[in-house]
Structure formats: structure tokens, C-alpha cells
Design brief:
The structure is a single chain. This protein is α+β, with helices and mostly antiparallel strands. The protein is built from 5 helices and 40 strands. Strand 2 (64-67) and strand 3 (73-75) form a beta hairpin. It is flat, with a radius of gyration of 31 Å. The two termini are 42 Å apart. InterPro entries: DKNYY (IPR027375). This is DKNYY domain-containing protein. Pfam families: DKNYY.
Length: 391
């Protein structure tokens, strides 16, 4: 009894578990009745604490709610008041109407989230869509929906960015919201772009074109290039070709902006094919991640089954991430379930790099963690010995 008196919470927990076992036994239940009771109580308490009486119009926005305690309008992202909180919207509840997810109006004001933006727009003609808003004069984009690098260049006293040159009467977003257009112009990177309007088409993640020019697509700009637009062809979402060359555009490399167009000449268009969408084969060459794999033989080249698809072989070599694994024996080469690791009769490899001293015969995953491997001598994390890890 002294323990119960000194440790009431621990004692209460054990009593609750005993009660749970007893109820399960007499009711022959497979589930936990006490857990169900606690879940029900939690749900009731949650509903009781909910500050909202309901959404203003959930079909249009799940961010605007009527307050339960009074007649206020409250803004709460997704209605998740418990984690994200809620704030008062200084609006007239009788005439308040959501216009889209984050835009609303009443008889007096236009709101973006919980903020009055009458000084930024023409109130009488204002209307809103999912990612933008319009009035009789302008198309607007919410600044806090824009890329951080762009936000940092804009005055934070404003909530909306004016998309210069956009016609509010004919403006709309395409299926890919990065692109938009009106009756006369295309827009990309928050600005109007100088292209042939009638023939311009976004092609894949890196390229777009009109009848006269092929463009490289960076994060915010289009760069004209010398690819022939008349024989231009999409190969997949990364690679394109014209009559003479295959192209791969690399915007970033090793954390630096490079805007590099890789070019590979080919002879026979019939030879162009993909393996696992990552390996591009043509003539007697193989490209992986935009780089030519030296020494690869397309006649025997195949990708090994693995989660990363980073391994391949031909008649003489084993490749990892597009590079030859030096001295790897093709006949005995194998991948482990964690395909960071592989081995042959002579060596254990980590992403194609030899792990000096690792014992091939006893190398494998530890019992408790499939990401940590060991042999008879050591425990390995990556290609490093970490014998202080638990056995």
C-alpha cells in the first residue's frame, strides 16, 4: 500500500492494464477495450475543446471558421487549430464569403488569410483562384507562396506580387502551375517571357520550344540554345535530341549553378533506347545521370535488380553509379539487401569502393539493423569500421 501511495501514477497504469486484461478475457475480445474507451474519451475532449462551430464554406476553403464562443470569423490553416493555431479575421460574419483557400471578402473588405488587403487591390472587381487573384487591372500572386529566393527581394509590407503584363480578363494557369498564359503572352518564373506565343510549348523538366528556338529551362529563366527546333524530339523527361545530337541540361552540380548543356553525337536514331529510364543507350555508348559511361558495351549491357538501380554489368565490367568497379569479378558479383554494399569472391564494396580488410565470407547485415553490416572482425557503418556499435 505504501508503494501505491508514493507512486499513484505508476500504480494507476498497472491497475488500468490489469483491468484491460480482465475485460478482454471476459468479453473474449481481440482488441483493447480500454484503449477504445480512452480513444473515445480523447475524441470527446477534443471536440469539446474545438474553438470552432464549423467551416464557413468548406467546399471553397478549409481555412475559415466560425468561432464557437461568439460570432467571430477565425483563420486556421486546414482547421488544425491544435498545432497551427487560429487567428481572428476582422470581418463581418453575416456577409463573410471565402473566395478561395486563402482569399475572402465581406461587405467592407478583401482578406488574404486573416489580413485586410484593400490597399493592394481594386476591391469592387477583386476575384480569386487557387494560386492567384485578379481584379480589373492586375493579376496577383501571394508572396508567401513564391520561392524564398524571390520573397527575399520583395518588400514584406505587401502580401501580393503584381504579375506585370498579365491580362486579368484572359489569364489562367496551365496544368503545370509553373506556367501560365493570357490571350497574348506566356509567363514563367513570375514574369512574361519573350517567345512565339502561338507555337510555344513546355516539353519536359528542362526544355521548352517554339517554332524558332529551343530553350533551356532554369528555375526562373529560359535560356535560348542552338538545338534545332525543327528536328527536336523528347526522349524522356530529362533527355532530348535533334537530328545529330542527344542533349542533357544540368542546371546545378555539386551545389553550384552551372547551367551546362551536355551534348552527345549519335549516328543511328534506331539505336536510342532506355533501360530503367536511368540509362540511355545509343550506338555503342551508355549515358547515366548525364555522363558517358567509359568502356560500356551496349550489346551486353544490363541493369542489375536493386532498389537504387545504380548497378549494371556488361561482358567485362561491373558498374556502380556509371563508373567501373575496378577488379570486380562479374561471375561472383552480388548485391546485398542494402545495396550500398556488394561483393565478389575477392572483395567487399561500398558503392563500388573496396572496403579494405573486410572478410567476404562472413560479411553481412547485423541481426538488429539491416543498415549496419559486419564480418567476423568488425562492424561497419558505410565503409568505416565502427566497432563501438551494438553487436
Amino acid at each position: 500500500m505504501q508503494f501505491v501511495y508514493n507512486h499513484p501514477y505508476i500504480s494507476g497504469f498497472f491497475l488500468l492494464m490489469l483491468l484491460n486484461s480482465f475485460i478482454k478475457k471476459i468479453t473474449n475480445s481481440k482488441s483493447s477495450p480500454v484503449a477504445w474507451i480512452l480513444l473515445s474519451i480523447t475524441s470527446i475532449i477534443s471536440q469539446a475543446c474545438n474553438p470552432f462551430s464549423g467551416a464557413v464554406n468548406k467546399e471553397i476553403s478549409n481555412n475559415y471558421y466560425y468561432a464557437k464562443a461568439d460570432s467571430q470569423i477565425r483563420y486556421s490553416p486546414g482547421g488544425n487549430w491544435f498545432e497551427l493555431g487560429n487567428s481572428k479575421v476582422d470581418a463581418d460574419p453575416q456577409t463573410f464569403i471565402p473566395l478561395s483557400r486563402d482569399f475572402a471578402k465581406d461587405k467592407n473588405h478583401i482578406f488574404y488569410k486573416d489580413i485586410i488587403i484593400d490597399d493592394e487591390v481594386h476591391v469592387a472587381s477583386f476575384r480569386a483562384a487557387n494560386h492567384f487573384a485578379l481584379d480589373k487591372d492586375h493579376v496577383y500572386i501571394p508572396i508567401d507562396n513564391m520561392a524564398y529566393s524571390v520573397q527575399d527581394t520583395l518588400p514584406r509590407t505587401k502580401k501580393l506580387f503584381v504579375l506585370e503584363g498579365a491580362d486579368p480578363e484572359t489569364y489562367y494557369e496551365t496544368d503545370d502551375w509553373n506556367w501560365s498564359k493570357d490571350a497574348k503572352n506566356w509567363f514563367y518564373g513570375y514574369k512574361k517571357i519573350d517567345v512565339d506565343y502561338a507555337s510555344f510549348t513546355p516539353m519536359n523538366d528542362s526544355f521548352c520550344k517554339d517554332d524558332y528556338t529551343v530553350y533551356l529551362r532554369t528555375y526562373f529563366d529560359l535560356i535560348p540554345c542552338k538545338i534545332d527546333p525543327q528536328t527536336f524530339k523528347i526522349l524522356n523527361n530529362r533527355y532530348v535530341a535533334d537530328a545529330n545530337n542527344i542533349y542533357d541540361f544540368v542546371a546545378w552540380a555539386d551545389g553550384e549553378k552551372v547551367n551546362r548543356l551536355n551534348q552527345f553525337s549519335y549516328k543511328y536514331k534506331e539505336s536510342i533506347k532506355f533501360l530503367n529510364n536511368d540509362y540511355l543507350l545509343f550506338d555503342n555508348s551508355v549515358i547515366y545521370e548525364g555522363l558517358l559511361i567509359e568502356g560500356a558495351n551496349t550489346s551486353y549491357f544490363k541493369v542489375l535488380e536493386s532498389s537504387s538501380k545504380a548497378y549494371a554489368i556488361d561482358d567485362t565490367h561491373v558498374f556502380c553509379n556509371g563508373k567501373i568497379i575496378v577488379d570486380a569479378d562479374i561471375k561472383t558479383f552480388k548485391l546485398y539487401d542494402n545495396d550500398q554494399y556488394s561483393s565478389d569472391k575477392n572483395w567487399v564494396y561500398y558503392f563500388g569502393k573496396k572496403i579494405e580488410g573486410a572478410d567476404v565470407e562472413t560479411f553481412g547485415p547485423t541481426d538488429h539493423d539491416k543498415w549496419i553490416y559486419r564480418d567476423k572482425n568488425h562492424i561497419y557503418v558505410g565503409d568505416k569500421i565502427r566497432d563501438n556499435y551494438p553487436n
